[in-house]
Amino acid sequence: MLFNSYIYIFAFLPITFFIYFYLLKQRFIVGAKIFLVFASLFFYSWWNIIYLPIILTSMLFNYAIGNSLNANIKINRKYVLIFGITINLISLGYFKYRDFFIDNIDLLLNIDIPLLHLALPLGISFFTFQQISYLVDSYRGETKEYDFLNYALFVTFFPQLIAGPIVHHKEMIPQFMNKWNLVKNYKNIALGMFIFSIGLFKKVIIADTFAIWANNGFDYAHHLNMLEAWATSLSYTFELYFDFSGYTDMAIGAAFLFNIKLPINFDSPYKALNIQDFWRRWHITLSRFLKDYIYIPLGGNRKGEIRTYLNLISTFVLAGLWHGASWMFVFWGMLHGIALIIHRIWQKFKIKMWKWLAWFFTFNFINIAWIFFRAKDWNSAIKVLDGMFNGKLIISDKLQKILDCKYIYFGKVTKHIGGGDKLLIWLLGGIIVVLFFKNTTMYLSKYKLSYKDLLISSIFFVYAILNLTKISEFIYFNF
Q: Is 323 among the catalytic positions?
């Protein structure tokens, strides 16, 4: 079930909200929580009910392993942790990476093992990472013996279930146990609807518009001139941001209706002045997981410079692979790992750079790296890069008039991806929004109910609903 669908917005979400709080009002607290778990599982299995046993098995298994790590019994806790993590990774590897491994073995050994073409269970990367962190924290003695119902809510809570944020048990389970969260909070409802409307607008109006030009450039155009190639890469850069941040806003907004505060996942990442700053702002919950459960356990920066660089590369190669079973993702992750190494070396020289220049280099690196993240294969990526840097700008009579400053008509030089003058306006608008507009996190601590916000959210919501003619999946559903 998509957040940007009529059935979710006008049926599932309101029905779940009203039944949940009706049960709480009747003091059926356990019943209300059970209902919310079942509603979340219904939401999850809406796509394909065959996914349901996978998440149920994962949830029961990890709860049992976590409790055994918490229990005061004589067991080799380290072996239990290794067993638990191994089973999680085997499950993730089987469903997400088996065909990738088979394909590479076939290529390496020149054999022909048939691919399985397994359907990727939705959200498996997200709920697997969440539960691995729970097991590690249980081993460290940082968890309590939570009851199964609250643990089930932590895993299945529908706003974050399919595409994050990657929530942590410390920030979620105590909220489900808090008695004050069992009563309707009208400020939270207003804030939730406001943020949800912004997220819906981001996805339906902004991300899906940029998607048209990005798809045309990456998937359909055979050749791209310089302007088309840059427009293609920038269109995807903005599409990805508004798509994923839009999903996160909608998740945060829906969770607020139930008095649950999800962690912030974005903090204006395209304002970053270096690559380290970018990863502090982009997909913050993934960055947190990578740091706490991969980079630091590998040794972090405690074992010398060379080991630190290897740890960075390893962490971001794994981050790339987490996004998908493709060498394109691995290469994207490696690029970011190398960029972080270069940033660390640069810091040693203590050379100050103008802020605008630091932003320019950072943004363009991110934009270029996204090409490998988006492209389906190497040829598609090289096509865009070749257009961007080979300098082949097809000059027509119309373009010559542009260069002579007689009039401006952008569409004639971007005919392979479409958009015309509208494309130029949207690209300029995208830059302005990501650099100069406030992000939704600003409202989480300072929000005050006002007629102005009500009007803004109403306009965003209605306009998005009126344009909800084509249902499109969120990009991170594929991860």
A: yes
Same domain flag for 42 and 122: yes
Check residue 406 and give its pLDDT.
42
Confidence band for 411, pLDDT divided at 50, 70 and 90: low
One domain, residues 22 and 67: yes
From the candidates 168, 169, 283, 323, give the one annotated as an active-site residue.
323
For residues 458 and 453, give the distance between their C-alpha atoms in angstroms, rounded to a whole number.
8
Whether residue 83 is predicted with pLDDT greater than 80 in this model: the reply is yes
- Sorted by sequence, the CB contacts under 8 Å of residue 15 that are 6+ apart come out as none
Average pLDDT rounded to a whole number, residues 127-140:
92
Number of domains comprising the chain: 2
* 60 within some domain: yes
Whether 133 and 194 map to the same domain: the answer is: no
Q: Which domain holds residue 59?
A: 6-183
